[in-house]
Design goal:
Elements (H helix, E strand, L loop, with lengths): L9 E4 L15 H11 L6 E4 L11 E4 L1 H4 L2 H7 L3 E4 L8 H9 L3 E5 L14 H19 L3 E4 L1 H8 L5 H7 E3 L18 E5 L13 H14 L4 E5 L4 H8 L8 E5 L6 H7 L2 E4 L8 H8 L3 E4 L6 H6 L5 E3 L5 H16 L5 H8 L6 H8 L5
Helix pairs in contact: 3-4, 4-5, 8-9, 8-13
């Protein structure tokens, strides 16, 4: 599906001063959406606060003082047809959404979340009051949008909330996360191989990825299956390396591949059968999304914070383990491998079932009433 957006000005905005480089920023989220808009003929840049960085691709961004992001007059001066805002609906960015709305510019707010950022449960009355206030402010934030995009599970979840449902019923639209067009089924024979892509360093920030859980799952899988090869991609910390050295059975089939460039990932997914998610919590989990687009099935644990990844296992595209343990996840991966052997997993069908879900142009088409060509 392609749209004719010639003459349209569709900019993206993030209120955070990220480094706008080629290797990290423009491969996903606002950077990727902006490039896809240009591919469809629109004028598009990413708007962010100052300062500029040496690594910035300056032709593709527009940095400005933060106060301008909260100015309706400044937004009006840009004469844009639409803005796609990645603000996570945080209350501190509410003024940015309000300014875009007041400028008369059409606005999409994208929620890259599993829905459990909201609607927390606590018996502490002070914390509960704060949480309700935050949720109320987030709903006000979202209400400034003409369209609010999110995954189908989050659309369903927030649609049942007394605080969010009025906005979601009126403006919610299922659109998960952008995936680059290069992630497609390779149409080549699959190897008897499983992949896992993430950050596995020893830093506290990467604990959510559960490096030890990842490796314990691989260790259990190669014990169950004497033929499978597991490839783990991403920066590896000393703890994971130490655990890897301790594997006594099948260690030669658990490969710590280390850092990989994003342009190399389609070939990795395209050559594997299963990609697994060992994380504690994820929003839309870009690795699983990319794997699906390449025709690779996915496996995940039943943690409620992984509800979006669990949704990815529908449409004959994967499996959810019975328990949140490495042993149970390994068994789920092994079941997936058997389904591949039995011809019950089809890479072309998996890719075709999901690629349109990750095409952000659908949301633009709905917002602007533009027909696909």
């Amino acid at each position: 599906m392609r749209m004719d957006l010639k003459g349209r000005k569709i900019y993206c905005c993030t209120p955070v001063a990220f480094i706008a480089d080629e290797s990290t920023f423009f491969i996903r989220d606002t950077g990727l959406v902006s490039r896809s808009m240009r591919n469809d003929g629109a004028e598009s840049k990413v708007i962010m606060p100052l300062p500029y960085y040496e690594e910035d691709l300056r032709d593709e961004i527009l940095r400005t003082e933060y106060k301008n992001l909260e100015s309706a007059a400044w937004w009006r001066s840009l004469q844009l047809d639409a803005v796609i805002l990645y603000s996570w609906a945080y209350p501190r960015y509410l003024r940015v959404a309000r300014a875009i709305h007041k400028s008369g510019t059409k606005l999409i707010i994208h929620l890259d979340t599993n829905g459990f950022t909201y609607l927390r449960r606590t018996w502490n009355p002070i914390r509960l009051a704060k949480d309700v206030l935050h949720d109320f402010l987030r709903s006000l934030h979202l209400n400034y949008a003409d369209l609010v995009t999110m995954s189908e599970p989050v659309l369903t979840k927030l649609g049942k909330s007394a605080i969010y449902s009025p906005v979601i019923r009126q403006k919610g639209f299922s659109c998960v996360t952008p995936v680059a067009a290069s992630y497609v089924d390779s149409a080549k024979p699959r190897q008897y191989k499983v992949t896992c892509v993430g950050r596995w360093s020893d830093s506290q920030a990467d604990e959510v990825k559960r490096p030890e859980f990842c490796l314990r799952t691989a260790q259990e899988l190669v014990r169950l299956d004497k033929e499978v090869v597991v490839e783990i991609y991403g920066h590896v910390g000393q703890k994971m390396e130490s655990l890897h050295r301790g594997i006594t059975e099948g260690r030669e089939r658990v490969l710590l591949k280390g850092f990989i460039y994003n342009e190399e990932l389609p070939a990795v997914y395209g050559g594997a059968m299963v990609n697994y998610c060992p994380s504690m919590s994820e929003g839309t989990h870009i690795s699983s999304a990319e794997a699906l687009c390449c025709g690779c099935s996915v496996a995940v644990t039943p943690r409620r914070e992984l509800n979006v990844v669990q949704w990815y296992t529908t449409r004959d595209s994967g499996s959810v383990s019975e328990a949140d343990t490495p042993e149970s996840l390994a068994r789920a991966i092994h079941r997936e491998l058997q389904l591949w052997k039995e011809g019950k997993r089809n890479p072309e069908a998996i890719s075709n079932a999901w690629r349109n879900e990750f095409a952000f142009r659908r949301a633009i088409c709905k917002l602007l009433g533009t027909e696909s060509v």
